[in-house]
Structure formats: structure tokens, C-alpha cells
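sry for the spam today, last one i promise. C-alpha cells for design, 235 residues
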């Protein structure tokens, strides 16, 4: 169970964060939330798919790491085997929250239940004088980028819905050992529908900053054969 606390030097001065990557540290996940602002970096390594959110009133974009629940094919020997780590993974055990008094200003929150936290192993959050460490300064920048990405993603998802640019995506993979994996419940960008858009619509999407992430999401599906190859190597 999570234990979210607003980050402050008085309570968290001596905490450290373990930066290696493993299932035991919470990296055993099949997908991670991504935002359109990072699609260019994400598409270099991972397929980008879309899934209905828990409230089922819209979709969220996800980077795909495996084919089964809890499977992350990018974990290898205590590291993450890809050049880019999605922001929602990279910032852990931190997240964005608001103040208890209802202040809407984004605040840095730490999950005290995270297995990444330690008192004697890992990178310091604050230095010995109580100042943010270089690591924390980077994390705060990434939290800000993620917050801005969250805020901008609603307009992007609205555009996909307005122009009918999502379609169901199902993938059935027969592995080298003869077993079959079936990926269901996801959507992807409908490439043919994008190609049918008229110049005026393409112009609006481009002016709103949506056209690039649309094409990045389409391009990301080229990573599926490499992900299947990882699955075959992992067995």
C-alpha cells in the first residue's frame, strides 16, 4: 500500500533512493503511462499503445514493455536495457501531488512505502546541509516536465477522439517455443484514417502540436518485432 507524503527536508533529510532496476524495486510492469511530449523519445525503444482509463471515459497512452501482466522485458542485470526511461518510471518513488489545504500548485510527493527508499544505500535526496541534491534537482525538473505533459495530453486525446483516430489493436504472437501470446484490450493510431485527413485538418493538428506525436505513435509500432525477439530470448 502506498504512503504518500509531501517531500520536506525535516522528515526526509537522510533518505536515499536506490537507482538500480529490478522487479523487487517495482519495475516489474508490463506498461507505463507516457505523455505526448515524450513520444519522440519513447518511440525509439517501445511500442506506444492506448488503453481505456479506469473510469472508462477516455484513453491513456502507454509504453509497452512485455506481453503478460508484470512482465518487463527491458530489465537486465540490475539495469534498464533501453536508452530512454519513460518519465513516469524515471521519477519513482516521487510523484506529483497537491497540498492538503487544496492548493493546486504541483508539489513533490514521495511514496514512503517504495522499496527504492533506504537510509544507507543509494543516492541522497538532500545533502548533509539539507539542500536538494543534484539527483533531486534532476527529479524536480522531470516532475515538472511530467506535470506539463499530463496537462497537455488532454487536448491531444480529445483530438484523437474528435477525428476518430484510434482503433482496436490485437496482436497474436507465436513464440519460438510454440507457445502463443495474445495482446488484447489496447488501441493504436489508425494510420489509414490519418492518411485520409484533409489538408485543413492536418494543418489544425500540426498547429496544435498534435501531428508529431501522432506520427511518433505510428512509428513506434515498428518496435513490436524487437519486443517479440526479447520475449523469445527471455523464454
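last one done:
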Amino acid at each position: 500500500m502506498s504512503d504518500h507524503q509531501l517531500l520536506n527536508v525535516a522528515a526526509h533529510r537522510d533518505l536515499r533512493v536506490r537507482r538500480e532496476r529490478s522487479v523487487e524495486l517495482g519495475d516489474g510492469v508490463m506498461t507505463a503511462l507516457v505523455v505526448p511530449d515524450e513520444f519522440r523519445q519513447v518511440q525509439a525503444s517501445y511500442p506506444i499503445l492506448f488503453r481505456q482509463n479506469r473510469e472508462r471515459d477516455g484513453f491513456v497512452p502507454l509504453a509497452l514493455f512485455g506481453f503478460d501482466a508484470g512482465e518487463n522485458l527491458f530489465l537486465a542485470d540490475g539495469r534498464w536495457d533501453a536508452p530512454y526511461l519513460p518519465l513516469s518510471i524515471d521519477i519513482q518513488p516521487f510523484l506529483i501531488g497537491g497540498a492538503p489545504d487544496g492548493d493546486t500548485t504541483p508539489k513533490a510527493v514521495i511514496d514512503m512505502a517504495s522499496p527504492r527508499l533506504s537510509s544507507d544505500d543509494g543516492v541522497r535526496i538532500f545533502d548533509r546541509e539539507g539542500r536538494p541534491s543534484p539527483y533531486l534537482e534532476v527529479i524536480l525538473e522531470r516532475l515538472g516536465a511530467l506535470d506539463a505533459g499530463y496537462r497537455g495530453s488532454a487536448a491531444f486525446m480529445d483530438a484523437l477522439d474528435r477525428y476518430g483516430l484510434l482503433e482496436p489493436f490485437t496482436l497474436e504472437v507465436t513464440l519460438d517455443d510454440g507457445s502463443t501470446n495474445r495482446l488484447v484490450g489496447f488501441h493504436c493510431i489508425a494510420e489509414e484514417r490519418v492518411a485520409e485527413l484533409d489538408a485543413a485538418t492536418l494543418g489544425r493538428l500540426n498547429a496544435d502540436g498534435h501531428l508529431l506525436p501522432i506520427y511518433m505513435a505510428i512509428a513506434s509500432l515498428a518496435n513490436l518485432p524487437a519486443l517479440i525477439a526479447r520475449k523469445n530470448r527471455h523464454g
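The chain has a mean pLDDT of 93. ok im logging off now
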